[in-house]
């Protein structure tokens, strides 16, 4: 049966106003940087001995001498900024790019990691901000939410339930880790949004393979602690076995989802033009190309610019790949994301006429990365 062509029509990203480079931590926390190998980040991404036991460890090894493990910059919420604010900006930008208004949207799907209010997702709050009267609900696939949301949105449009679906993704990790905890060095904030609807024949989403990422359930948790004033605060805590769990399961999840999506569309890895991964570490893109046996030139790694921004990574990688001309109309593009206590999921799509939102604003004077075309940072 020939499927109704459905895919991404527009794409936008938005980031908070603070950019923190490694110099910020060197200047503010010199002792912690000097003792970094005794701290939580080093314990999370290190080897118990000097040898690599799998592809993940092998690609991690070149970064072990760097106390920041390959992170160069992070985008961090400023006072007064919130996940909802980033989501609203990205959503409006994606709608503007698609030449739509909130009145043209008949469903909004929102995935927030994690919203400011406890117990409620951002969907209804964002709908109020946008003046959206259509349906709006929350989706939770952890850091695998982006390809999962693409799969759900496309299925609903194909089924004729909705016509224009706005998907909004955010991640605000900085709110859940103290900045003097070295784990904060590889975490950042951001939001992305895209419109899913009918596209030209032979374009759009071709297939998806999604798995429950239950093997990652024990990587971390959210705990309620007290701040210095005795007020309750939520803090992210990583398991002491997080690195072991991750490195031992990442390859199988990646291969199963990507191979499954390719097989469902009847194509081989060699026929796919470009791959975009949830680059949650500086070496994940190289790790993924090794596991899938593909040329590293067929992917993009924005981790050094953004650090780990959860499910927003896949949106940002898509946006900048299109912006840089790495993916073009009619290219076969595979997108993969995964998240602890969430899902691992891969979409295969044929890229169409995707309208891009405004370019994120970066202060070059504050940034060691002067251009997205700096391949030594972006593509390696």
From TrEMBL:
Membrane-spanning intervals of the chain: none
Every Beta-ketoacyl-[acyl-carrier-protein] synthase III C-terminal domain range: 263-351
Gene3D superfamilies tied to this protein: 3.40.47.10
Superkingdom classification of source: Bacteria
Keyword presence, rRNA processing: no
Keyword Transferase tagged: yes
The Beta-ketoacyl-[acyl-carrier-protein] synthase III N-terminal domain, residue ranges: 140-210
Keyword vocabulary terms for this entry: Acyltransferase, Transferase
Protein name: 3-oxoacyl-ACP synthase
Species this protein is from: Amazonocrinis nigriterrae CENA67
């Amino acid at each position: 049966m020939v499927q109704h062509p459905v895919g991404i029509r527009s794409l936008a990203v938005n980031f908070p106003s603070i950019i923190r480079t490694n110099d910020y931590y060197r200047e503010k926390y010199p002792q912690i940087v000097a003792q970094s190998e005794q701290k939580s980040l080093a314990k999370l991404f290190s080897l118990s001995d000097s040898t690599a036991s799998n592809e993940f460890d092998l690609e991690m090894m070149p970064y072990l001498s760097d106390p920041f493990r390959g992170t160069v910059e992070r985008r961090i919420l400023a006072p007064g900024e919130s996940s909802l604010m980033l989501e609203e900006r990205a959503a409006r930008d994606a709608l503007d790019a698609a030449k739509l208004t909130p009145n043209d949207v008949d469903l909004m799907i929102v995935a927030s990691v994690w919203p400011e209010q406890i117990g409620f997702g951002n969907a209804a709050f964002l709908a109020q901000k946008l003046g959206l009267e259509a349906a709006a609900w929350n989706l939770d696939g952890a850091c695998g939410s982006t390809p999962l949301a693409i799969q759900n949105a496309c299925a609903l449009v194909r089924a004729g339930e909705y016509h224009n679906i706005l998907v909004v993704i955010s991640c605000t990790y900085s709110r859940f880790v103290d900045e003097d905890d070295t784990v904060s060095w590889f975490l950042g904030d951001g939001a992305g949004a895209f419109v899913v609807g009918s596209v030209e024949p032979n374009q759009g989403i071709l297939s998806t393979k999604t798995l429950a990422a239950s093997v990652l359930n024990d990587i971390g948790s959210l705990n309620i602690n007290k701040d210095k004033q005795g007020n309750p605060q939520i803090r992210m805590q990583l398991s002491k076995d997080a690195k072991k769990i991750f490195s031992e399961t990442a390859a199988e999840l990646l291969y199963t989802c990507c191979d499954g999506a390719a097989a469902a569309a009847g194509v081989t890895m060699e026929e796919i033009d470009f791959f975009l991964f949830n680059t949650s570490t500086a070496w994940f893109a190289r790790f993924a190309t090794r596991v899938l046996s593909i040329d590293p030139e067929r992917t993009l790694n924005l981790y050094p610019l953004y650090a780990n921004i959860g499910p927003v990574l896949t949106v940002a990688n898509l946006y900048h790949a299109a912006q840089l001309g790495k993916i073009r109309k009619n290219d076969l593009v595979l997108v993969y994301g995964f998240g602890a206590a969430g899902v691992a999921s891969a979409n295969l799509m044929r890229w169409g006429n995707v309208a891009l939102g405004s370019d994120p604003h970066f202060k070059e004077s504050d940034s060691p990365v002067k251009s997205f075309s700096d391949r030594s940072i972006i593509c390696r």
